[in-house]
Amino acid sequence: MKTLCIIPCGSRKIWDKNPDAGPVEAKYVYTGRFSKKCREYAEKFYPNDWCILSAKHGFLYPNDIIPEPYNVTFKIKRTRPISSNELSKQIVDKSLDKYEKIVIIGGKDYVNIAKKCFPSKEVYTPLSGCKGNGEMESKLNGSLRTNISL
Predict the structure, then answer these.
(1) How far is CA 115 from CA 53, 84, 124, 125, 144, in A?
(2) Residue 109, pLDDT score
(3) What is the mean pLDDT of residues 49-77?
(4) What is the per-residue pLDDT for 145?
(5) Cα gap 89→76, rounded to integer Å
(6) Does 1 score more than 90 pLDDT?
């Protein structure tokens, strides 16, 4: 069964520390501890089948280029996050609809958005029930340490 792993973007970005970084591959943009841990997990267990869900850009493959800093969140509508219609279009355009199973690594907001995008797919959310990023990081660390996916 072909599986896609989706990880969240993050508010901390490379331009926070290096304002002159210029355009950067998506996999290197999000520099927060939780974002980096999610990326490490995706790279280890789904090395060729993962993407990032960005509130501004939608579904990003790891090598997609992010041209500049941004501050958009799904939690605050006035930041103008990407719409569900745009996300649905990207699923087809980026061939994400070829996957039979979707694994979503992230918090409740990202899980809910991603689940809505894949209504006919088997969706697995291994971090559901965690009480915050600390507990989610701990589960990811345990998985990475034992080499057993969640």
Answers:
(1) 12, 11, 9, 9, 24
(2) 87
(3) 95
(4) 96
(5) 22
(6) no
- As a whole number, mean pLDDT of residues 15-33 equals 95
Mind listing the pLDDT tens digit for each residue in 80-89? 999 999 999 9
Order of strands across the sheet that contains 3-8 = 58-60, 50-54, 3-8, 101-104, 122-124
Q: Topology of 3-146 in CATH?
A: Rossmann fold (3.40.50)
- Tell me phi and psi for residue 130, to 5 degrees: -70, 150
Residue with tokens 């809505």: 116
Provide the residue ranges of all domains of the chain, joining segments of one domain with +.
3-146
CB 6 within 8 A of CB 50: yes
Q: How far apart are the first and last CA of the chain?
A: 16
Asked whether the whole model's pTM tops 0.90, one would answer: yes
DSSP string covering 83-114, please? Answer: PHHHHHHHHHHTTGGG-SEEEE-S-HHHHHHH
Classify residue 106 as exposed, middle or buried by CB count within 10 Å of its CB (0-12, 13-18, 19+).
buried
